[in-house]
Amino acid sequence: MSTPCQHKLPRLKALPSYIRPLTPAVLRIQPRQFHCCRVKMSSEMTHVFTKNACPPAGPYSQAIKAAGQVWVAGQIPADTTGKLVEGSIADKTKQCCENIKAILEEAGSGMSKVVRAGVFLSDMKHFAEMNGVYEQYFTHKPARTCVAVRELPKGVDVEIEAIALQ
């Protein structure tokens, strides 16, 4: 829960009488109440690895747990051996989501706890087909960015990353 902030904002001084507004309208600005949140932050980071998802293709972790969150690295459509999945964008998106699901479960989280996702497509013509599968996995509609990029690792057409609560 947030509590009202104890910081006081300076009050604006009244304008001199010789300064008149351009319109006769009087603006009434309602004071805003700002809230401060106390969040326990930890500098500890834990690497997450599961054999139930695509192994990292480079010097990075499948995910990192830190500060009550799970940061899942971008997942490409590859199986548990690292072999790329063939087929439609729907098939490839499904594999990306299955990888994310397995990693989150290993981290003690789950798909329903994802607060943000990032989708990278090789071409925006794949947007609708990707969305058809994506919405089956992310039914709670987390915040998301979807962009088309020039090239993705291993020449894949889709990559998905996620941030979830623990």
TrEMBL record:
GO cellular component, one term: mitochondrion
CDD domains cross-referenced by the UniProt entry: YjgF_YER057c_UK114_family
Gene3D superfamilies: RutC-like
One Pfam family linked to the record: Ribonuc_L-PSP
An annotated Gene Ontology molecular function: deaminase activity
InterPro entries to which the protein is assigned, alphabetical: RidA (IPR006056), RutC-like_sf (IPR035959), YjgF/YER057c/UK114 (IPR006175)
Family of this protein: Belongs to the RutC family.
NCBIfam families, sorted: Rid family detoxifying hydrolase
Identification of the protein by name: Uncharacterized protein
Phylogenetic placement of the source organism: Eukaryota, Fungi, Dikarya, Ascomycota, Pezizomycotina
